[in-house]
Design goal:
mainly beta, 2 domains, five-stranded mixed sheet, 285 residues, 8% helix, six-stranded antiparallel sheet
Length: 285
């Protein structure tokens, strides 16, 4: 049995080949996911502790039928577990576990009041929860949130806007202060305020479905999963004139490997029209 200890940066994602009647287990932050292969179905079992700060990460494979039957019996007696069966004429040998950005935009609220003075430019590093995609062969079976945030509405009214997820951030300004959590990605947000007044950041709308994922390792990358960077510019008149999704990996991570495409594609890196300037990226209510 192979196992990756939780205090390493070894990736929890990637393909796993399983023989018939064997299982595998993934611990990804607060979520534990099991998979079991039979001749005609893949059985997927998962549960979550609900602790967003949990940072364990491990993979165990292969596991025998006894371990699986023990977990399956526990799942049948405990509503905290979810068990799904996916049937095939003949099950594919390979199960691919993939990190993917959230299926909705994420509204990030700073833990403490935050504003950018006139003429200043800063980069905030936002930590966002990931989803776990389970793929058998070439067939996507399901997706499991590593940590499911609460729901929130983002928009100028109840008739106009979108349903999003809500999370909080410490708004780290230095990478060295960023906690390492394997079930979360890092989104760099660069903001330039050319207006004569301060720019308050009360809520930040992150278009997660439009962001690709990158894997990075080494001294310049204190976490191993990143999204494309966002850039926001506020002009001298106080108008958000430019909102961009950077093409390619974040700055200083040019060697990062792109491991997941965005859920949705934008034809241009300019997303100002899509997110309607200040109504689309920043909120003050």
């Amino acid at each position: 049995m192979e196992s990756m200890p939780s205090d390493t940066l070894s990736p929890w994602w990637g393909p796993v080949d399983l023989d018939l009647n064997t299982a595998a287990c993934w611990n990804v932050g607060p979520t534990t996911l099991w998979a079991y292969r039979t001749p005609q179905d893949w059985r997927i079992l998962y549960s979550s502790t609900g602790d967003a700060m949990q940072h364990d990460s491990s993979v165990e494979t292969p596991l025998g039928v006894d371990r699986w039957e023990e977990m399956e019996a526990q799942a049948q007696a405990d509503t905290a577990f979810t068990l799904h069966r996916h049937t095939f004429r003949s099950t594919p040998t390979t199960l691919d576990i993939q990190p993917v950005s959230a299926d909705r935009s994420i509204v990030v609220r700073p833990e403490h009041p935050l504003s950018i003075p006139p003429g200043e430019e800063v980069t905030l590093y936002l930590s966002l929860p990931l989803w776990i995609r389970v793929v058998a062969g070439t067939t996507a079976l399901e997706e499991v949130p590593s940590h499911r945030p609460s729901d929130t509405w983002f928009g100028p009214s109840t008739q106009e806007g979108e349903l999003c997820y809500a999370t909080k951030t410490a708004g780290r300004l230095r990478l060295t202060n960023l906690p390492l959590r394997p079930h979360r990605s890092v989104t760099p947000l660069r903001i330039r305020n050319d207006a004569p007044d301060s720019l308050p950041l009360e809520r930040i709308h992150v278009p997660a479905p439009y962001l690709a994922l990158y894997a990075a390792d080494g001294e310049d990358a204190p976490t191993h999963l990143w999204t494309q960077a966002l850039t926001l510019t506020r002009d001298k008149g106080g108008v958000i004139t430019e909102v961009r999704i950077r093409t390619g990996p974040p700055r200083d991570l040019e060697d990062a490997v792109r491991i997941q495409e965005p859920r949705r594609e934008i034809k241009s890196g300019l997303v100002l029209n899509t997110f309607r300037a200040i109504e689309g990226l920043l909120g003050t209510a």
